[in-house]
Amino acid sequence: MLNVVVLVSGGGTNLQAVIDAVESGEITNVKLSGVISNNKNAYALKRAELSGIESRCVSPKDFASREEFNVKFLEAVDEMKPDLIVLAGFLVVIPPAMIEKYRNRIINIHPSLIPAFCGTGYYGLKVHEAALKRGVKVVGATVHFVDEGTDTGPIILQKAVEVCKEDTPEILQKRVMEQAEWKILPRAIHLIANGKVTVEDGIVSIEE
Length: 208
Ligand code: GAR
Description:
Layout: E1 2-8, H1 13-24, E2 30-37, H2 43-50, E3 55-57, H3 66-79, E4 84-87, H4 96-101, E5 106-110, H5 125-134, E6 138-145, E7 155-162, H6 169-193, E8 197-200, E9 203-206
Parallel strand pairs: 1-2, 1-4, 2-3, 4-5
Antiparallel strand pairs: 5-6, 6-7, 8-9
Bound molecules: glycinamide ribonucleotide.
């Protein structure tokens, strides 16, 4: 059984997709052991509570310095004893010490086909605004391992989604979530929990 801790900042629809997939048996071998938010008002915390998952808030705003936050944040994560950490719309930079300690055991969902529309400044709706501005016809989502860079770690799964003529950033965001994010994030967790994912020289191989 893989102990999974999910880190969130907002609405938590990806967290919900993971909860639902565990409940339906689409994800096997996983216990959702905790949810941590940097934002006490995140609806994701409510979703955790409704599903009986232990949750807490650790916010940089409650500490005098980022260094102090990083230490307490790592302690909070460690206390939940994760085998896998899932960033599901988590918008705080992961402390380097956490990346080192949990190398290839932290995954992130990003709402674009990396390496397009990723890196510093590309998060949430901004990704979809940039995609529409550029006029791309295909967008999508990526699940990747987290390394020291922003959205630079080994890619696990990607799924493409078509852009439609009348799309607004909000409409496109919703389609990318429904058709890509809520499918590939649970799938990636299931594959990892069942020992199907290996990483070598920055490249992921999946035994399906
Ligand atoms: C999701 O679209 C996720 O891919 C994105 O934030 C949203 C969170 O929604 N993450 C990033 O942009 C990370 N760079 P949710 O709270 O409803 O899951």
